[in-house]
Design a protein that fits this description.
Mean pLDDT: 89
CATH topology of the largest domain: Endonuclease, Chain A
Number of helices: 18
Strand content: 15-25%
Oligomer: single chain
Distance between the termini: 54 Å
Length: 479
């Protein structure tokens, strides 16, 4: 009697058991788990193979492996941590919504809220680039610059020239560019940097085809720290399109922030870790020590997040917490709006509690597939009382949320699964009411120039358009 049918059957059963056990132990969503287990058993072998290819979260696994063994850089910030009295005065008494939010973010980010900061908003490249170039030209000991995109165009070359002058003065300069972001122009800026003697590295260089915007595990952070004292962060890449005075062919409006004070140390922590990963060089010594002296009176905290986050991800917890803390208003600006169900529910709950929720997204998205997918999901907020506004050109790349004109968060992260799950990102939160009010006014100014998007308008889309948008939505976890 042949044994191979029995051996084959036993192998199929063992494979199905192993795949089912993995799904049960690792999948957080019950519906997803049931679906995969059903496919595994109803389609023997094929189901297990499909699960191995599509069901296993290799992105987080790979991100965790990439970071394994890397030393976490943490500066001693105890002298800058605000006292209980200071927190009560600036944030609110114990048990108030914003105070609870501060506690939540502290637990999630695992870094302290620090006092003594100065945060100055800069409108796009027109204000940010001259300030950044001036800081580079005045640098005395070190410059750390990380950018997702660093184009080889007139703006990029101007930065390369300034960085080259700093190297010639004896300043320690390190430039980190994402592996895909460095290929947005050809030839890439790396050759120009090398010709100026600037030490640089690419984050996860890739052989992915040119201009492939949806690849995973990208370093999307935008950080510059000069002499450990002056920082710049926000959503601004280094490219001519962001300098509107240059009349670029594809203009982009953005927000960047000049930072001084102890929170600069948290920007530097993230850069040093990313640089060590990309270049195998650990930056240490006096040139790379942060200056912790007070530079203002603002409370702020850096929030790093990415695919190596544990469980749900840091930024999703922060956003849900901020929406839960809102009492009167929530104003959001993002170029890409494709959140998951948890964020949609938090937005809807806020609106149904009577909070005024405004979401501003570009009327014309620079990534058509993302714009279509976003149209397919807007009903989830429009049907619950949130207001959606379509901002006119130039393309609005700002990433900003303001709650009750009292709390604000800005940075590199978008409101989509790519930023919340696949990219390495960096945001800053602040509890300064003057700055939050200023950010709120900026968003309201854009709203005044924007067109409202209504549920009736979304329902009136033709069948082909709805099908197109719905198909695009299927790719939303990776857009």
């Amino acid at each position: 009697m042949a044994l191979w049918p029995h051996v084959t059957a036993a192998a199929v059963v063992a494979l199905s058991i192993a795949a089912s056990a993995h799904a049960i132990l690792t999948k957080r969503d019950t519906r997803s788990t049931i679906g995969w287990v059903g496919l595994i058993w109803l389609s023997p072998v094929f189901g297990a193979i499909a699960y191995a290819i599509l069901g296993v979260n290799r992105i987080r696994s790979r991100a965790t492996q990439l970071r394994a063994g890397r030393t976490r850089i943490l500066h001693a910030l105890d002298p800058a941590v605000p006292s209980a009295d200071r927190l009560r005065a600036e944030v609110g008494p114990d048990g108030t919504p914003l105070r609870s939010l501060a506690t939540l973010v502290g637990n999630v980010a695992d870094r302290p809220l620090v006092d003594g900061n100065s945060l100055i908003p800069l409108e796009g490249g027109d204000e940010a680039y001259p300030a950044m170039l001036q800081a580079i030209d005045q640098a005395e000991r070190s410059i750390a610059l990380a950018s997702y995109i660093f184009d080889n165009d007139p703006t990029g070359v101007q930065f390369a020239d300034a960085l080259g002058r700093a190297v010639a003065r004896g300043v320690e300069v390190r430039v980190l560019i994402d592996g895909i972001g460095s290929t947005y122009t050809f030839p890439p800026i790396t050759g120009v940097l090398a010709s100026r003697g600037i030490r640089h590295a690419r984050f996860l260089p890739t052989s992915v085809p040119f201009y492939f915007p949806y690849a995973n595990l990208r370093n999307h952070r935008k950080i510059m720290v000069v002499d450990g004292r002056i920082g710049f962060t926000g959503g601004l890449n280094i490219r001519d399109g962001c300098w509107l005075a240059h009349n670029p062919a594809h203009p982009v409006r953005d927000l960047h922030v000049r930072v001084e004070g102890p929170v600069v140390a948290q920007l530097l922590e993230v850069f040093v870790e990313d640089w060590a990963f990309a270049s195998d060089e650990t930056l240490a010594g006096p040139a790379w020590e942060p200056v912790l002296a007070p530079a203002g009176e603002m409370l702020a905290r850096g929030i790093r997040f990415g695919p190596d986050d544990p469980d749900i991800g840091r930024i999703k917890l922060v956003l849900v917490g901020a929406l839960a803390a809102a009492q009167k208003t929530v104003r959001i600006m993002t170029p890409y709006f494709l959140p998951d169900d948890a964020i949609f529910q938090a937005l809807d709950v806020a609106a149904m509690r009577g909070v005024e929720v405004d979401i501003v997204i570009p009327a014309e998205n620079n990534l058509a597939l993302v714009g279509w997918a976003s149209d397919a999901v807007l009903w989830q907020v429009l049907g619950r009382g949130c207001a959606v506004w379509m901002s006119p050109p130039p393309f609005e790349h700002t990433k900003l949320i303001v709650v009750d004109s009292a709390w604000a968060m800005f940075g590199s992260g978008n409101w989509d699964e790519r930023s919340m799950r696949l990219n390495f990102e960096f945001n800053v939160e602040t509890y300064d009411r003057t700055l939050a009010t200023r950010f709120d006014a900026r968003i309201r100014d854009v709203i005044a120039r924007s067109r409202p998007r209504t549920l009736a308008e979304m329902d009136a889309r033709s069948l082909p358009i709805r099908l197109r948008d719905g198909i695009a939505r299927l790719f939303s976890p990776y857009l």
